[in-house]
Design goal:
single chain, 19 helices
């Protein structure tokens, strides 16, 4: 089936998943960081203090996600999506009304849990379960919501902040979720999709790993490095984006343009990666995901021209595009779909945990005199090591998938 036919015949489910990832942007670091200057000023916080607050709220959301992520295995996608959108809307209201550091921590906790965590977790788990033969394409298309959010919302927020207080902008976000995102979910996810050409029973043939079996498998954690590195690095850069602009003496328009370039690259790369996943399988592509990130961090550290940020954003977009398609599918291939929600809850909790540590650690390092440019060199080295780790992981998953099939035939 070509891409046009695939999208046309599955438009409602793909649109529903894209809707979740798009509006989940309200809980993503890049979005919250757009308000960082206002938050640090109003609450009298240093870079390190705000990073620590952000880390605390995000860590709490990661712990919570481990326990509630498996609800996607127990309730319908419509029910879970509705609850998560309502929770994210409430989180926006809490942020708008925050009048103390404690309330700020609670707001960040709710935004991270509902937005970055459950909105994306629900969308990706649904696509991984509903689609089999073209899982890679479904995940790549759903992931476009992230890129659209990164393209649209910085311009949206910067424009509104010129004429409105930052608290009013958060209230607008809450209303948008209720008036746009919720109706779209109810329309698109009105009924579950049975994988085309497969019965539910057939889609769950072969060994179906439980969450406990997956987490005691060391290769699961080795593969997880491929997700943790982009989460740590990307969150750290977006969280300190205003500081980075000041450091490099770049205008905000450079950043807005960079987000647009990153989104375009991520969408293109994601669609190509999705096609390759469907053709060759996800686990064979693992070693390639972190290489663009390693190159991009090194470039951003040493370069002074604004074009360096654009190249960095395009390289990060390539990494994100590959990750959305490859890591969205690899867990289904390696561990089956019956307990996919429970297994993916650990994956997303790891991502949230990594994104929690990033701003706190890097903010503290800035406060003690270790510049962000120096930190970027360390991030580049870490991404390169992570890419090397994925080589044996890929080989192991090849064997593991074969063992799963032998289990099916046996």
């Amino acid at each position: 089936m070509n891409l046009h036919s695939f999208v046309t015949s599955n438009a409602r489910w793909l649109a529903g998943g894209l809707n979740l990832t798009f509006f989940g942007s309200f809980g993503q670091t890049f979005f919250i960081a757009l308000f960082s200057e206002h938050l640090r000023r109003d609450f009298a916080l240093t870079h390190g203090q705000f990073g620590s607050i952000y880390m605390l709220g995000t860590l709490a959301s990661a712990i919570t996600l481990v326990f509630i992520g498996k609800v996607v295995d127990r309730y319908s996608v419509t029910q879970v999506s509705t609850g998560v959108i309502l929770a994210l809307s409430a989180a926006c209201v809490v942020m708008a009304s925050a009048n103390s550091v404690i309330t700020l921590v609670i707001a960040i906790y709710l935004l991270r849990l509902a937005g970055q965590g459950m909105m994306t977790h629900t969308a990706v788990t649904a696509m991984g379960r509903w689609f089999v033969a073209e899982r890679g394409r479904a995940l790549a298309i759903t992931g476009i919501g992230h890129q659209l959010g990164e393209t649209c919302f910085p311009f949206f927020v910067f424009t509104l902040l010129v004429v409105l207080p930052w608290r009013v902008v958060w209230l607008i976000c809450a209303v948008v979720l209720l008036l746009i995102s919720l109706p779209v979910v109810l329309r698109c996810f009105g009924r579950d999709r049975t994988p085309q050409g497969y019965s539910v029973a057939n889609s769950e043939q072969g060994r179906q790993w439980t969450r406990r079996e997956a987490v005691i498998n060391p290769w699961f954690w080795a593969a997880l490095i491929g997700i943790l590195a982009p989460s740590f690095i990307g969150t750290s850069v977006w969280f300190h984006q205003v500081h980075l602009l000041d450091l490099k003496q770049w205008d905000t328009t450079v950043l807005v343009t960079g987000f647009a370039l990153m989104s375009a690259t991520s969408v293109t790369t994601g669609l190509v990666a999705g096609h390759l996943v469907d053709r060759y399988s996800a686990y064979r592509l693992l070693p390639f995901t972190l290489l663009p990130l390693a190159v991009g961090c090194l470039l951003l550290s040493v370069a002074s021209a604004p074009v360096a940020l654009w190249v960095f954003m395009m390289l990060v977009g390539g990494c994100y595009g590959m990750n959305n398609a490859i890591f969205g599918a690899v867990w289904s291939e390696a561990y089956g779909t019956r307990h996919l929600g429970a297994i993916r809850s650990i994956v997303f909790a790891g991502m949230v945990l990594s994104s929690a540590i990033g701003p706190g650690l890097t903010g503290w390092l800035i406060d003690v005199g270790i510049g962000f440019e120096t930190q970027l060199i360390a991030m580049s080295l870490g991404a390169l090591i992570g890419a090397m780790v994925q080589i044996p992981v890929s080989g192991r998953f090849v064997k593991q998938v074969r063992e799963n099939r032998l289990h099916q035939s046996g």
